[in-house]
Design brief:
The protein has ten helices and no strands. It is mostly helical. The protein has one domain. Helix 1 packs antiparallel against helix 4, helix 1 runs parallel beside helix 5 and helix 4 packs across helix 6.
Length: 198
C-alpha cells in the first residue's frame, strides 16, 4: 500500500496550483485569464512581476522535491521516489483541482530532480540559464534543459529509475511546449521581459 500512497501523495501535492493561488493573493490576477493562460511561474512573471514569479517558482520546486522526499520515507528502493516525482509533475500539468488544466511542469521537475539526480540538475540549470540569457526565450531554455537532463543523469551515474523518470518527464514537458515550439518556428514567441496585464 505504501507505494500507492506515495504515488497518490505525489500527484495531489503536485496538483497544488501555486501560480494561481499566489498570483491571486499578491495581485488579484487569475493567470488562467492573463498572458498565455498557463498556470506556471513563467506566466506569473509576465503578468505579476519578478518577486511573485520567484515565489511561485520556489513553491513549485518545493512541491516536487517534497513529493520525492516523502516517498523515500514511505517506501523502500529507488522506484517509489522516482514514481512519486513523476506523479508530482503529472499533477502539476494535469491538476485535479483545475479540471486537469495546469502548467508545463518545468519548475516542479526541477524540484523532483534536485533530489533524484542532484549531480545532473546543476548542469541542466546551466543549460537553461545560458539559453535564456542568450535568446531571452524561457520556453527554449526549458526545452533544452529538459532534453539535456536525461543524458546528464546517465553520465552522473543516476539510478535506472531516475533516468526512466527523466525520460518520461522530458517527453511530457516537450509535449506541453508544442505550442511554444510552433511559435519559436514562426517567430511569434514572447521573449522574457515582455510583461502583459489582464
Amino acid at each position: 500500500m505504501m507505494p500507492v500512497v506515495a504515488l497518490s501523495l505525489g500527484y495531489l501535492v503536485g496538483s497544488i496550483p501555486f501560480a494561481l493561488l499566489v498570483g491571486r493573493l499578491a495581485t488579484g490576477i487569475d493567470v488562467r485569464r492573463a498572458g498565455s493562460g498557463n498556470v506556471g511561474a513563467a506566466n506569473v512573471l509576465r503578468t505579476s512581476g519578478v518577486s511573485v514569479a520567484v515565489c511561485v517558482l520556489l513553491l513549485d520546486m518545493a512541491k516536487g522535491a517534497a513529493s520525492v522526499l516523502w516517498a523515500a520515507r514511505l517506501t523502500t528502493g529507488e522506484s517509489g521516489p522516482a514514481l512519486a516525482g513523476l506523479a508530482a509533475v503529472v499533477g502539476h500539468v494535469y491538476p485535479v483541482w483545475l479540471r486537469f488544466r495546469g502548467g508545463k511542469g518545468v519548475a516542479t521537475a526541477a524540484g523532483v530532480f534536485s533530489v533524484l539526480t542532484p549531480f545532473a540538475i546543476g548542469p541542466a540549470a546551466v543549460v537553461f540559464v545560458l539559453t535564456v540569457w542568450t535568446t531571452r526565450f524561457i520556453s527554449l531554455g526549458s526545452i533544452l534543459a529538459t532534453l539535456a537532463l536525461g543524458p546528464l543523469a546517465w553520465t552522473t551515474g543516476a539510478s535506472t529509475s531516475a533516468m526512466a523518470t527523466a525520460a518520461a518527464v522530458g517527453a511530457l514537458i516537450v509535449f506541453r511546449h508544442r505550442s511554444n515550439i510552433g511559435r519559436l518556428r514562426d517567430g511569434s514567441e514572447r521573449r522574457i521581459g515582455h510583461r502583459v496585464r489582464s
